[in-house]
Amino acid sequence: MEKKDNVFLMLVTAVAALGGLLFGFDTAVISGTVPFIRSYFALDDIALGWAVSSLLIGCIGGVLASGKPADLLGRRMTLLAAAFLFFVSAVGSALSEHLSTFIVFRFIGGLAVGTASMLSPMYITEISPAARRGSLVSLNQLAIVIGILAAFFSNYMLVSTGDDNWRWMLSVMGVPAVLFFAALLFVPESPRWLAQKHRKAEAFAILQRINGTALATAEMASIEASLERDEKGSYTEVFSKRMAPILWIGIVAAVFQQITGINSIMYYAPMIFAKTGIGLDSAFMQTIAVGGINFLFTLVAIRWIDRIGRKPLLIAGTAGMIVSLFALTAAFYFERFEGYLVLGCVLLYIASFAASLGPVTWVVIAEIFPNRLRSEAMSVAIMVLWGACFLVSLTFPYMLNVLGGGAAFLVFGIMCVLNLVFILLKVPETKGRSLEELEKMLLKH
């Protein structure tokens, strides 16, 4: 079979990326509920931060809990479990009468988000040809931003539905959760996982359908050689001296993706815009603009990531984030909210993030770790990512209301400067190399 089945590859990638869509929807939908759950549950700033960020504790748990099932049962079966948890969270949080119940179901949703955040890009990475891997893994980020945009739009459409509007906002997620579960029943397992489990004929058949016979034969030989060096990975090796340089790159890249402020803006966008004095309806409308720009500039990243590489996108995007965050700092410090100044700065920030740190960080994290250690090492990096996200999301309402927007955005701007230095000095270029080539290069076999 010399002919490559590009339609099959795109369909399988799209199904896996539905996990990203649910990830984006579940993390962003809370932004629209903030004004209403605050009054319904009588929350102060810290309690509001806890209600919003409780999902992120579940994300950490999902990352920790999903690595072993992903290795034992497969990537696809573990994603099926995540789809079920997405549905349970949507229904349970929407029906909650007490804050404690609400937090439990948001935690369950976090388990699903954490699982999807690790396994969707991992699955796409393991099934993609090297020449297209960056753009295909970036489709997962595109699905995330589509989920975010869908959540913002859904919130806007439901905001006028009465006292229970926040319940409707949360329950909508059940629909894509069912679709994700059903679609996963029709996709194959990761060929690299199949090879690990000595199901090499099945693995080769999938690689052959995606790559054609000649490339599949070469890739299968490369996978087998990689697995022969060490059949089973462990967390002991992940934290070994030999792995330390790569692990730190993954961890620091993950942390900087979050502490540069993205989810503070995504989760609290209506709250930020309301601080400028506009009405709640206008704040929700401006939030849709944020989601739209996020979507459009993720397309920019997908187009260019395999053409110009990961590192140039990271450098350019981080520079744009620095400019926008320092401009926001000045706008809030001097209380210059006239016209669309704050909206323009936020949109520049979102555009810069969406074309760089948003998709590229996930690609780099999924690429740099060796085959046999990928699930363990990715779980460590992504667990730290969600930990950083939790801390930022928990404290942002306090920072915004007590310290002021100027101080909050100044902190994020300084983090962006530090991230730019890190990218320039430490992040490797991974464009165009197979996963096995990267393993040899980064571990210097």
Overall description:
The chain is mostly helical and 445 residues long. The protein has helices at residues 6-28, 30-40, 45-72, 75-94, 99-127, 133-158, 165-171, 174-184, 191-196, 200-211, 213-229, 235-238, 244-259, 262-274, 280-304, 310-333, 341-354, 357-367, 374-403, 405-426, 435-443. It starts with 5 loop residues before the first helix and ends with a helix. The mean pLDDT is 85.
What is the topological layout?
Layout: H1 6-28, H2 30-40, H3 45-72, H4 75-94, H5 99-127, H6 133-158, H7 165-171, H8 174-184, H9 191-196, H10 200-211, H11 213-229, H12 235-238, H13 244-259, H14 262-274, H15 280-304, H16 310-333, H17 341-354, H18 357-367, H19 374-403, H20 405-426, H21 435-443
Helix pairs in contact: 1-4, 1-5, 1-6, 1-8, 2-7, 2-14, 3-4, 3-5, 3-19, 4-5, 4-7, 4-8, 5-6, 5-18, 5-19, 6-7, 6-15, 6-18, 10-11, 13-18, 13-19, 13-20, 14-15, 14-19, 15-17, 16-17, 16-18, 16-20, 19-20
